[in-house]
Amino acid sequence: MAGIPLTRASQLIHVTNTLEQHGHSAEQMLQDAKLPMWHFCDPDDLIPTHHIYALLDRAARNLGNPAFGLVVGADNSIATLGTFGRLIAGSLTTYHAFASCCRLIHLHTSTAHNWLTEAGDVVWFWRSQFRGPEAGRWQMEQYVLMRLIELVRMGAGPSWRPAKVCLQTHEPPGRELREALGDPEIHIGQRITGIAVPRSLLAWPLQQRGFSALHSPSDEEARLQHKAPAFSFVDTLRQVAGTLLKEGHPQIGTMAEITGLTIRTLQRRLASKNLTYSQLVDQARFQAACSLLEDDLPPVTDIAMELGYSDSAHFTRAFKRWAGITPREYRSHRQMH
Fold it and tell me: HSE of 222 in the Cβ direction (CA atoms, 13 Å)?
């Protein structure tokens, strides 16, 4: 069975940021959509992509705004897409930003692919996107379109608008879209989403965006590589469980809903891989613990709490059962090497 399509939580956080900025309760909207409180996650945590679709759809319907995806795209910047966003925003030129986005997108989401094609005096910047559920698909495409346009505006300035756009939607573009894009030539019903960019803009240096990298670009990329979206069923379950740990012990019912399976079927799928659900959660806890312990700043007590333990003693006993050494000993060994 294929894995769960995953995307960094920063993309959903963009949606909840827009809701809050416009006076709406993000928590209430998540509850209405029967979704976990993903907006409390670290922006680099991995969550199910279809939950982002679900929230976009719920928000657009509740607010009566068919262009909600455009609003989310306009309200939030690429630089705030966690580590991935900082790497893109740190590019030297528009072309460098395009190339970085194409090269790194698989570390941000398992559901998209970016590439460039040349056509005379223009370059097309393309995005193929996981089709996902019908509900929320058009909102997601609007959001993606604004992200593509922002990549150009980072060099050309905020007034730049594309002359030609390709969209997957079969719906005729509404007034909101045409006004936001400056009434370009729009081709609907296309296989992929794309914008035409004059070749002359590619060498433009990016304008300063006021972001600051937390680490060197190579270290930032290594951090993304370390926890890249997985593709196998068990590996993606483990990654989602690792994100859910911050809300406490991930309930098997929640995981069954995420996978679209019954609890019994989920247990059978895991059993076919010689795993129980408890073992899967333990593995997720161990992976998360190791990742947190590589940083010498958080106290072991704080790490225990973040992983859902009532105190550090329980965490220490569990970690020693997994690794044969205590968390402090593990951290000490990592620092020495």
Answer: 7
